[in-house]
Amino acid sequence: MVLRGYVPTSEETLQTLAALRLQSLNSDFSTHAPFPRLEELFPPHVLHARLPPLPHQPPTKCRGARLRAGLLAGGLWGQALAKQRAERDQRLRGRLREEGASTMAAIVEKWKLLQGMGRPEAMAAYVALVREWPGFGSTLFDVDLHAVRPRLGVVEGQPWQWATLTPLSLQSPVGSGPQHLWLGIGAKAVSLYKPGEPEPLDSFCYGRISSFGASDSSTFRLSVEDRDLLFETSQVDEIAQLLNTYLASAAAQRLPRPQEPPVSPPTSEPTMLPQGLCPAAGPWQHRPPVGSSHS
Predict the structure, then answer these.
(1) Which CATH code is given to the segment(s) 139-254?
(2) Domain covering 11-55+64-131, topology
């Protein structure tokens, strides 16, 4: 979850989490301790985010311009452009190695400060840091929210509209296009997160969810009270299975418990066992009376 970038927190905290992981794996710092690869300790996307963005090349507008560009690409200009791209990629790889080395050095320094911390203590500290995020414990899915509309029957014939989310509100579903979000499914609620943001845009307890289903292999619909939310995702089946599990659990908790039958008061009469089920007499039942003699 942390390495996939699903815990939005500062780089300082991510480095501390990596140091705690090293402490739990290898105990105290040692130059002879095995070092995992950086991508096994630290989210790779954080390092990539430090790199400068690639220059944007506007597309050619007309067929003649595309033809000239194609001819140039096959000649000297094409060779020069390929060389420039190779040099740029090499610079980016070098920059990425530098950023990785700097991050690993910072993690090792934090690891040294944990000397004497036991493995259970390091694991507990790791979990305590991750639990500070409100979405801890939820399963997160990458989705594109394509549309929100009032449910049919509430506003008959209302067309799908592009979705614009404001924090803790889905009441203004008019916007410019689909949004990439995290769909968090937990034991208590379903939440929508903007990637990298610690607080959810909105949360729906299971009592507010009236239905859900798959329109096709990549489209998922979630009906929340008077709204239908339409998502595009490659994990439709996984989302549906998890929602089924949590909804069934929530429904079971709401069901009234059956009343236990009244317990009859104990009676003083001895319990009569059916014939043939009486226990055999034990040795203590055949003791001779006190004072008797044996021949």
Answers:
(1) 2.30.29.30
(2) Acyl-CoA Binding Protein (1.20.80)
- The answer, as to whether pTM is greater than 0.85, is no
**Residue 193: enclosing H or E segment and its boundaries?**
strand 189-193
Which alpha helices (H) appear in the chain, and where do they start and end?
11-26, 44-49, 63-73, 76-112, 119-131, 236-254
Task: Please report which helix (H) or strand (E) contains residue 181, including its range.
Answer: strand 179-185
From first to last of its 295 residues, what are the pLDDT tens digits of the chain? 788 878 888 899 999 999 999 999 999 999 888 889 999 999 998 888 888 776 655 554 555 555 555 555 556 666 777 888 888 888 888 999 999 999 999 999 999 999 999 999 999 999 999 998 888 889 999 999 987 777 655 444 555 454 444 443 444 343 446 889 999 999 889 999 998 888 899 999 998 998 898 888 899 999 988 788 999 999 999 999 999 999 888 778 766 655 555 555 544 443 333 333 333 333 333 333 334 334 3
Boundaries of every domain in the chain:
11-55+64-131, 139-254
